[in-house]
Specification:
The complex is a heterodimer of chains A (about 425) and B (about 625). With about 425 residues, chain A is an all-alpha fold. Chain A is built from 19 helices and three strands. Chain A has a three-stranded antiparallel beta sheet. Helix content of chain B is about 35%, strand content about 20%. In chain B, strand 18 and strand 19 form a beta hairpin. In chain B, helix 9 runs antiparallel to helix 20 and helix 12 packs parallel to helix 14. The longest helix of chain B is centred in the N-terminal third of the chain and has 26 residues. Chain B is of the alpha+beta class and about 625 residues long. Chain B has two domains: about 180 residues, Penicillin-binding protein 2a (Domain 2) (Alpha-Beta Complex); about 350 residues, DD-peptidase/beta-lactamase superfamily (Beta-lactamase, 3-Layer(aba) Sandwich), CATH 3.40.710. The chains are: A mainly alpha (about 425), B alpha+beta (about 625). At the A-B interface, helix 9, helix 15, helix 16, helix 17 and helix 18 of A face helix 1 of B.
Chain lengths: ~425, ~625
């Protein structure tokens, strides 16, 4: 089963970037959990020791995954999906609560997070459903069904509560876009977010002014013969303005103060220095500390195990969600740019791999993998460097966490297995 | 389109991240300043501030330990308030109030609970302190003055303010810094360098060990002790003589430029500006805008120099070859400027230079001044030459001493008069008052003393300075040890010195002779004005006197300036002679004179302009 052929056919560039990311990640976990009293590397009592153990487990998982038949995954994808849904439901009864979220099963030697499993299973199930010959993505019914596959686990995860993980599933919508959902949906979605943000930053009046200017510009530039669809134009304007007004209302009346604080922190809405200081000490503490830690690294960084803010545990959750700030402080811009570059190479390579598939299932699954990894990367680093609001999800391959590492590895290597198999299946 | 969409997003996000990171790590990044890092706590080790001695090794300023009771609010455990209050001498309410205040400031950081305990209280407390958690005693060092004099020379230290912190990164909130006097000028020498130890902390502000194993730590560098050129006894004596008088005295050692004493009246006890009562006392001193005790008249007052200035005009005339010592000028109990007669008190008659000086004849020096200017075709040329000679005596500009402050005085120039009268619209007659040291010339007492030292040295001087030794070693600062030559040749000084000696022998100061010491001096009586209810009003003349002794081998040059002391010999002359006698002999033989000078005050003169009534000036009452 481990013929020369597999080693030849598997994509080594992806594997190298994967190894590099896991290695760099572990070095930084070591640094952020390092104490002078416990310098030993191979001590499974320490966090970095545990992580090392899970790297070992992941290697075993890679061997098992690549050893299995490629069509195993497609065939049993529905089963996996059902199992993961059942496991998510089971959390309501048997779940273990850590840090306020009931997201784990206590397996004794380690805590299993079924939402991690659900990410893999949902990607497989979605690919399976979309690649089915009977599925027509142009039909509203099938669009809704595909959306249902994505939303079901998300809905089960939200009340844990783990909104960050739930958000990840929405990234899978991108797979549907790739397979034919009109891009105008995406455009409308993006415009909605834009109006939302702009309303908070500048207010409804400015939205109205900008809209007016756009319409004037439109009339000036249009060809003479072009007949303006007056009614749709008016309804777009009205809907936008109503939406903008409702944003104000929702923001001020429905949102709680902590939500408002997060937004005002993210969009730099608060200008009063005293209140800003208050935000920095409370809701914005993590972001502020991580930004400062990254900034203090400068271009070359302070060096391995020399990060003063890392050592002083100034950045909370530094070995998990804020691991990237350790990179920033100890390895400087050189380190952070290298990590960004590695991730970018990995994603572009995966897009290339997905696009070269001859069959629908591996391509769609590939897109699923990219969407999930990318949304983690985007939200996590965006949060750590202070350009996105605080949403607690880990950085793939980097953050401390056994479940996380294991299932990201499984997610990726199922795709590599499918890719290595692409020439064999001549269907 | 759909195929490249995802790749584009990946690239755009990648570039955005790199952009944000370069903003944070390259553009916002400032050189790694350890002191701004919240993860690093510097612990300072303060060296003792250096002692200050006088020129003879007598202690002027030392240090006194003081003990503050400190509290770290969050470490305070419930305690026996009754016993504790008794121990530290506070009542319960005050204690509770102060604890509350400390907590408001910071629960984590130490605050002062009781400042500056006495040594006795400290001894009592020390043993029992460990029973009270959250409290400890911090030793501090305060300045201790072994004299009640020289406040203006020594200066004071006080806590650094925002400006100091912004200007000099060395200082940290709460540290002390020299504000005036020697404490300011030699701040770096006296202060030493604090030791620093960097401690790595976690976010709960707990110490987790030395940062980088202490390789960046620095031991404290001791503050150096210095000796200043002041003679403690002379300084103290001079301040006693200034009792009830306003003005300044500066005594120099001509052979070195060392400042033997620098007295400003009125003055204050330097101990007033130490410790708990410092800020109250400072406000009181600072707000006394009439007597102005914090204004050092010895280096900041800029009166017209008066008659001592005549000696320089005589020197210039000799140097320029327009006169010889034998040149005679007739005094008509005054002299004429155009048709206006200006008075003279010398008694009238034909004067040569010697008599001109010791009788202080105004007419003689008005003539001298004219002769200098007549040598040149234009007044401008004459003025330039005259100004150059004057400036070579250290007048009309900053001396470049190591005092913390100073004033340039004034030697007017062509430019000065051009802007006053207009180009070529003035002649030597317009500025004839400068011949007798009135008019536009102005000099600080230290400049007058320096000028006198230059005459005493027959043509050169050393920049006046206050620092004598650092850590027991004599200073080798070239600015102070190198001789400054005036523009007057040595040979021209003898006639002037002889004239000044005759001031004591038979001239304007003949009744202030000191038995056994040959003195050369020159009196000065300086007209001065003030503005009362927007009317220019003349006040009693300032009394000025310059002198050096002994004539042949001068050891002291002195300038005395007494505000509204009337004629030169009256106060200034007497004080100068007592100072010289004190310095040369160590004790005073003329007890009556001494007693009179110590007791007399001029408060009645100083009260006149504020009386709101008409008043007489230049009264002969004692």
């Amino acid at each position: 089963m481990f013929g020369k052929s597999l080693l030849k056919r598997i994509d080594w560039l992806t594997i190298f970037t994967y190894i590099a990311l896991v290695a760099i990640g572990w070095v930084n976990i070591y640094s952020s959990t390092f104490t002078e009293a416990e310098p030993s590397i191979f001590n499974f009592g320490t966090l970095h020791g545990k992580q090392l153990f899970f790297i070992g487990v992941s290697i075993i998982a890679i061997i098992v995954i690549t050893a299995l038949e490629a069509n195993f995954y497609e065939r049993f994808s529905s089963l996996f999906y059902i199992i993961s849904i059942v496991m998510l439901l089971g959390l309501f009864v048997f779940g273990k609560t850590i840090a306020g979220a009931t997201s784990w099963y206590d397996l004794g030697f380690f805590n299993l997070q079924p939402s991690e499993l659900a990410k893999v299973a949902t990607s497989l199930a979605l690919a399976k459903y979309l690649s089915d010959i009977q599925t027509d993505i142009k039909s509203r019914k099938d669009q809704l069904f595909a959306l249902g596959i994505i939303l079901l686990p998300a809905i089960l995860i939200i009340p844990q509560p783990d909104p960050g993980s739930a958000l990840v599933f929405f990234a899978l919508i991108f797979v549907i876009f790739r397979e034919g959902l009109p891009l105008s949906y995406l455009l409308i979605g993006l415009l909605t977010i834009l109006v939302f943000v702009m309303t908070l930053m500048f207010g409804t009046i400015w939205i109205a002014i900008v809209l007016g200017l756009l319409i004037v510009l439109f009339f000036l530039l249009k060809k003479k013969k072009f007949k303006v669809p007056i009614f749709p134009l008016i309804s777009v304007v009205v809907i936008t303005i109503l939406f903008s007004l409702s944003v104000d209302f929702v923001f001020n009346n429905v949102f709680e103060q902590r939500h408002r604080d997060r937004f005002s922190l993210w969009l730099r809405l608060e200008k009063d220095p005293n209140k800003l200081e208050q935000i920095r000490k409370t809701i914005g503490y993590n972001t502020y500390q991580s930004e400062k830690a990254i900034e203090s690294g400068g271009f070359f960084g302070k060096g391995f195990l020399e990060g003063t803010r890392t050592k002083g545990d100034f950045v909370p959750e530094q070995h998990t969600d804020y691991i990237f700030s350790t990179v920033g402080e100890e390895w400087g811009f050189l380190g952070t740019a290298t990590v960004i570059l590695l991730f970018t190479i990995l994603f572009l390579r995966l897009v290339y791999l997905a696009e070269r598939q001859k069959t629908a299932f591996p391509r769609m699954y590939g897109y699923g993998v990219i969407s999930i990894l990318f949304i983690h990367y985007f939200i996590n680093i965006g949060m750590v460097i202070g350009i996105l609001p605080t949403i607690g999800i880990p950085l793939p391959f980097f953050s401390y966490g056994g479940s996380g590492l294991l299932f990201f590895t499984i997610l990726l290597f199922i795709f590599l297995k499918l890719d290595s198999n692409r020439l064999k299946e001549g269907i | 389109m759909k195929k490249i969409l995802l790749s584009s997003i990946i690239l755009i996000i990648g570039i955005t991240f790199i952009g944000r990171l370069s903003y944070l790590q390259i553009f916002s990044f400032s050189t790694d300043n350890l002191l701004e890092d919240p993860a690093i706590k510097p612990i300072y080790d303060y060296p003792e501030r250096g002692y200050i001695y006088d020129r003879n090794g007598k202690l002027l300023v030392g240090n006194d330990p003081a003990y503050d009771v400190m509290v770290i609010p969050r470490e305070v455990k419930p305690l026996d308030t009754l016993e504790f209050c008794k121990l530290i001498g506070l009542d319960k309410e005050t204690l509770i109030k102060r604890l509350k205040k400390a907590r408001v400031y910071s629960p984590r950081l130490p605050s002062v609970l009781v400042p500056q305990l006495s040594k006795e209280d400290y001894a009592k407390l020390q043993e029992k302190m460990r029973h009270f958690e959250g409290f400890y005693i911090q030793k501090r060092s305060l300045r201790y003055y072994d004299t009640k004099s020289a406040a203006n020379v020594l200066g004071y230290i006080s806590e650094v303010n925002e400006l100091d912190l912004a200007q000099n990164p060395y200082y940290v909130q709460g540290e002390l810094k020299g504000r005036t006097g020697v404490e300011k000028t030699y701040e770096d020498t006296l202060r030493g360098e604090k030791g620093i130890q960097y401690i790595q902390k976690d976010r709960f502000n707990r110490d987790i060990g030395p940062y980088k194993d202490g390789i960046l730590d620095r031991p404290p560098e001791q503050g150096k002790e210095i000796s200043i050129t002041i003679d403690k006894d002379l300084q103290e004596y001079g301040e006693r003589l200034m009792h009830g008088k306003r003005g300044g005295i500066v005594a120099l050692e001509p052979s070195s430029g060392e400042i033997l004493s620098m007295i400003s009246g009125p003055t204050y006890d330097p101990s007033l500006l130490v410790g708990r009562k410092r800020s109250k006392n400072y406000t009181k001193l600072y707000n006394d805008s009439i007597a102005n005790p914090t204004w050092d008249r010895s280096i900041l007052a800029e009166p017209s120099p008066g008659s001592p200035f005549k000696t320089l005009n005589a020197l210039i005339a000799l140097q320029e070859g327009v006169m010889t010592p034998e040149t005679k000028i007739k005094c008509y109990n005054g002299f004429y400027v155009g048709k206006t007669k200006r008075g003279c008190h010398c008694g009238g008659g034909v004067r040569d230079m010697n008599v001109g000086i010791y009788r202080s004849c105004n007419a003689y020096f008005a003539g001298t001044f004219r002769k200098i200017y007549d040598k040149f075709e234009t007044t401008d040329e004459g003025m330039d030459v005259w100004e150059k000679h004057m400036r070579s005596f250290g007048l009309g500009g900053y001396l470049g001493s190591d005092l913390h402050t100073g004033r340039p005085g004034r030697i007017p120039s062509v430019k000065y008069y051009d802007s006053w009268y207009g180009d070529d619209r003035w002649t030597s007659s317009y500025i004839i008052s400068n011949s007798i040291g009135q008019g536009e010339v102005a000099a600080t007492p230290i400049q007058l003393a320096n000028m006198t030292a230059a005459i005493a040295n027959r043509g050169h001087f050393f920049t006046p300075h206050i620092l004598k030794k650092v850590d027991g070693k004599d200073i080798t600062i070239p600015e102070f040890t190198e001789l400054k030559q005036t523009t007057i040749d040595r040979k021209h000084f003898e006639p002037i010195v002889r004239g000044m000696a005759n001031v004591y022998e038979k001239g304007t100061a003949k009744w202030v002779k000191i038995p056994g010491i040959e003195i050369a001096g020159k009196t000065g009586t300086v007209e001065n004005f003030t503005i009362i209810d927007s009317v220019k009003t003349q006040l009693t003349d300032h009394s000025v006197f310059v002198a050096f002794a002994p004539v042949s081998k001068p050891e002291i040059a002195i300038a005395v300036y007494i505000e509204n002391g009337y004629y030169g010999a009256r106060y200034a002359g007497h004080i100068a002679s007592l100072m010289i006698e004190k310095y040369m002999k160590g004790e005073i033989t003329r007890k009556d004179l001494e007693k009179r000078m110590l007791e007399k005050t001029l408060e009645h003169e100083y009260a006149k302009p504020y009386s709101g009534e008409e008043f007489k000036i230049n009264e002969y009452v004692w």
